[in-house]
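Sanity check

After download, print the first record. It should look like this:
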Amino acid sequence: EPTVRTELMEQIPPIAIFLQESRPKFPTAFFEYLMPIVVRYLTDVNNQVRKAGQEALLILLEQDLVAQSDIENKVCPILLDLSAPDSDDEYKVEAVNIICKMASMLSRTTVEHMLLPRFCELCSDGKLFQVRKICAANFGDICNAVGQEATERLLIPKFFELCSDSVWGMRKACAECFMAVSYTTSPEVRRSKLSPLFISLISDTCRWVRQAAFQSLGPFISTFANPSSAGLYIREDGTLSIRPPAQDVNSNSCQPSNNITVMSSSANAA
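Expected structure tokens:
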């Protein structure tokens, strides 16, 4: 029964945590018995079971309970199969969604070598706009996961494609994550490539795209500032925080400091 399999998936994370805490007694139980079940249920015929399996997998990754070898040899291959061009539409949408969510939990090497090529392919998926929409909404997180070099070499060309997509929702999603993308690039790329691209979004024919772009204008401008003098930095939760200069804090030591926080576009998209 699908309900039984769904309930089983919901119990996997707490069981895995118990086994991790009792590892001397059960050194290989999780890897031999539970992990294969999680991987198998990612392709279950029932969508509720698959959803439960995806949620369980993300919890296990977040808790650092999955071995690197299992990620590279079991999890990534099945996601690549599910997101292949000839894969079923429903499976493909689910696969790209989980690829985007798990990117921030994996090592940069794993993401760049195993998942990034497929993500770039999915950005140009001409069959399903839902796939491109997920890629656009999570673009900033992928850039942050792979770093500046891979972003400028592989992702920026794809970002240009998505920013000129015929579906306005795609362009709006790009406008919303613009700050996160810009923050990952060099000052030269921001000035010579991203600035003209941002102007095109502000001048878009769709008012929803223009509105999203204007809302991202301040955060995008902030990426040009020098963090050491402006006190701008990106927190781990994806928010842009502005700290007052150190001398101001010292001169007003009796006053509580007022940090100004602006939500980044990637956080809003999530």
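If your output differs, re-run the checksum step. Summary of this record's structure: Confidence is low (pLDDT under 50) at residues 245-270.
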